[in-house]
Amino acid sequence: MNDCEETNGKAIKALIVFREISDTDNLFAPILCDAIRMTGIDVRCSKEAFWESDTAYDIIHFQWPEEVVGWNCEDPDVIRRLEERIRFFRSRGAHFVYTRHNVRPHYANDIISRAYDIIETQSDIVVHMGHFSADDFAARYPQSRNVVILHHIYEYTYQEDISEARARQYLNLPQNAFIVTAFGKFRNREEIRMVLGAFHAWKRPHKLLLAPRLYPFSRRNRYGKNFLKRWLSRFGYYVVRPLLNRWLHLRAGGNDDLVDSCDLPYYIAASDLVMIPRKDILNSGNIPLAFLYHKVVVGPDTGNNGELLAITGNPSFDPDDREDIVHALETGARYAAYEHGEANYDYAIENMNIKKTGREYAQVYKDAINGR
Q1: What pLDDT is stored for residue 223 in this prediction?
Q2: Same domain for 216 and 327?
Q3: What's the total number of domains in the chain?
Q4: Closest Cα to residue 280, out of 248, 249, 318?
Q5: Which of 187, 189, 300, 308 has a CB 3.0–4.6 Å from the CB of 319, allowing a cystine?
């Protein structure tokens, strides 16, 4: 066991505060847990253990504060209990690490915002996925200890040897189209307008936008007893969506149409270009996913997202400038033709592989314990 894996002669015991691995489609934390475990650290993912266990951990590792208190939490007492649990674990010798995924919550309320404040100020070391975030956080909290570790790629997670032709056949997509994939749930009308407006303005023949979670329509009964909203949502899904898909050259679904994890790599493999459909973003897991599949990425020049695109030579855009977005799409198409995706893959394999990430987090754990 090397120096990173133990402290005071015993193995480091760590808890990543995240739901049980079998109960999530967000694989960031489970993959990170496996990467850290490969270094010899005794680490587990569990939200319940944070709230209920009396185990003495050396490290408590927070990810999203929403994951700790609940994504739609409206119980003000949870703040008191969060502070009590942090005091309890600290009294047992624990040190705290926080990976900063977002600047602030996407869907904020006062309780979740307060949870962000507590976790940000109580963590001994804050890990950032880019220098943009580290600099921003240091300006907010001058006494904070900040470390940069890039977002890991999803090695050994999905089937990686899928050809573009096979992926298109599997998804019933045209083989001769230039396919731009905008993956993930669109969060608001501004993101929908940004992507659709730029894609429609882009004068590219045989183009197709693949956006499996674009529309705010649902085929499910998510509005309960509100008959009007339920009817409008279903009308939008079954009538408006097909019309817009044909008119705008889209293959798009409703924003609660979840993509099965077995199908996800086919969407990326089928793409000529991957687009990050966000107006304001700190980090995006779509970039390392696209890099793993040798794809060129275009995205907003914001946060760590813009920093990583610049470092790797991928086009970025001003999300409020439609002409700039169209220019980025045109540039991305040229880069794809010149196989810039291979350079993206090489960069990711060298700098974002899970073994490297695991070692870097193991060192962060040891530094937190030793007060460095």
Answers
A1: 57
A2: yes
A3: 2
A4: 318
A5: 300
The angle subtended at Cα 188 by Cα 257 and Cα 329, nearest 5°, is 85
pLDDT (0 to 100) of residue 149:
98
pTM: 0.91
Token pair belonging to 202: 């882009």
Tokens 């009538």 belong to: 239
| 259: number of Cβ within 10 Å | 16
Q: Is 301 exposed, middle or buried (0-12, 13-18, 19+ CB in 10 A)?
A: middle
Task: At 311, give phi and psi (nearest 5°).
Answer: -60, -40
Same domain assignment for residues 168 and 298: yes
Q: CB 249: neighbour CB atoms within 10 A? A: 17
Closest CA to 275 of 299, 301, 241: 299
Residue 253 tokens read as 């679904």
Residues 6+ apart with CB under 8 A from 15: 43, 44, 46, 49, 50, 53, 55, 57, 59, 60, 61
Per the CB < 8 A criterion, the answer to whether 280 and 202 are in contact is no
Low-confidence ranges of the chain (pLDDT < 50): 1, 3-4, 23
Coil, helix or strand at residue 272: coil
pLDDT of 232 reads: 77
Helix (H, G, I), strand (E, B) or coil at 274: strand
Residue 303 pLDDT: 96
CA 312 to chain centre: 18
157 falls within a domain: no
| Residue 279: alpha-carbon gap to chain centroid | 15
Q: According to the model, what pLDDT value does residue 1 have?
A: 42
The predicted pLDDT at position 283 comes to: 94
Distance separating alpha carbons of residues 149 and 317, to the nearest angstrom? 24
* Same domain flag for 100 and 198: no
| Kind plus residue range of the DSSP H or E element containing 135 | helix 131-140
The alpha-carbon radius of gyration of the chain (Å, integer) is 22
Q: What is the pLDDT of residue 226?
A: 63
